């Protein structure tokens, strides 16, 4: 065997080892639970959003394949004016939310409908991040008056397309939401919403797993 053949063989072995390592890494990741960030989109004083959020969290926490984090627009308290030099406390708040979004494999946005759209505070939180969203799936749970927040969701799909996300087809939607929960936050007729949540979570999980596996082999955009 010539030395040229030898080095070609070593290179091939090194490549095979690197591929095997990458594949093993991807396989190891594939078994890890997916990190889902639930984003509460309303920051209105007296908001109904936490009732919907708690209902959703109770559904997500039944899944052993998911670990959940909550990003609450009300608690994030992000300024609406963009500044290149934010004050230290604002910088800290921005960094905290950015880290949460970055760490997530998938998102569920809980949004009410305001004037046929979604809340301004939610848009502010979305617009302050870019790479953190990319190549991840986004699902929607919406609520409102007669529309159940469906128009807010359709607008959010346009926004999230710009951020290189995949939006999940099926949603959970609560029309006249407040009439369907008791004072303890229990849904009065849970079978329908529970079934819809299962479909949503199954679709979100499929996309999150597929995209995480794909990114382990080839980083997005490369
Ligand atoms: C400013 C404003 C605008 C609204 N516009 C709509 C609307 O266009 N369609 C709808 O179905 N409900 C509408 N609603 C009803 C809300 O979606 C509903 O009250 C919901 O519970 C609000 O969410 P929150 O309590 O978490 O803020 C509106 C409510 C507010 C405060």
Automatic annotation (TrEMBL):
Q: Which UniProt keywords apply?
A: Oxidoreductase
Gene Ontology MF terms: oxidoreductase activity
Q: Which residues form the NADPH-dependent FMN reductase-like domain?
A: 35-177
Q: Which domain of life is it from?
A: Bacteria
The EC number on file is 1.-.-.-
Taking the record's annotation, the residue ranges forming a coiled coil are none
What is the organism field in this record? Streptomyces cavernicola
Which protein, by its recorded name, is this?
A: NAD(P)H-dependent oxidoreductase
Q: Supply the InterPro entries for this chain.
A: Flavoprotein-like_sf, FMN_Rdtase-like_dom, NAD(P)H-dep_reductase
């Amino acid at each position: 065997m010539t030395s040229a053949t030898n080095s070609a063989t070593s290179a091939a072995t090194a490549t095979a080892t690197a591929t095997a390592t990458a594949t093993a890494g991807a396989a190891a990741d594939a078994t890890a639970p997916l990190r889902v960030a639930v984003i509460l989109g309303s920051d209105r004083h007296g908001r109904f959003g936490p009732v919907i959020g708690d209902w959703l969290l109770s559904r997500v926490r039944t899944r052993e394949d998911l670990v959940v984090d909550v990003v609450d627009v009300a608690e994030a308290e992000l300024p609406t004016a963009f500044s290149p030099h934010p004050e230290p406390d604002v910088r800290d708040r921005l960094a905290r939310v950015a880290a949460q979004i970055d760490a997530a494999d998938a998102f569920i946005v809980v949004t009410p409908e305001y004037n046929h759209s979604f809340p301004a505070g939610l848009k502010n939180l979305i617009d302050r991040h870019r790479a953190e969203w990319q190549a991840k799936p986004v699902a929607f749970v919406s609520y409102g008056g007669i529309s159940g927040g469906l128009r807010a969701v359709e607008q959010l799909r346009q926004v999230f397309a710009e951020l290189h996300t995949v939006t999940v087809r099926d949603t959970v939607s609560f029309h006249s939401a407040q009439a369907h929960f008791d004072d303890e936050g229990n849904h009065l007729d849970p079978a329908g919403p529970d079934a819809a949540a299962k479909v949503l979570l199954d679709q979100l999980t499929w996309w999150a797993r597929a995209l995480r596996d794909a990114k382990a082999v080839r980083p997005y955009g490369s």
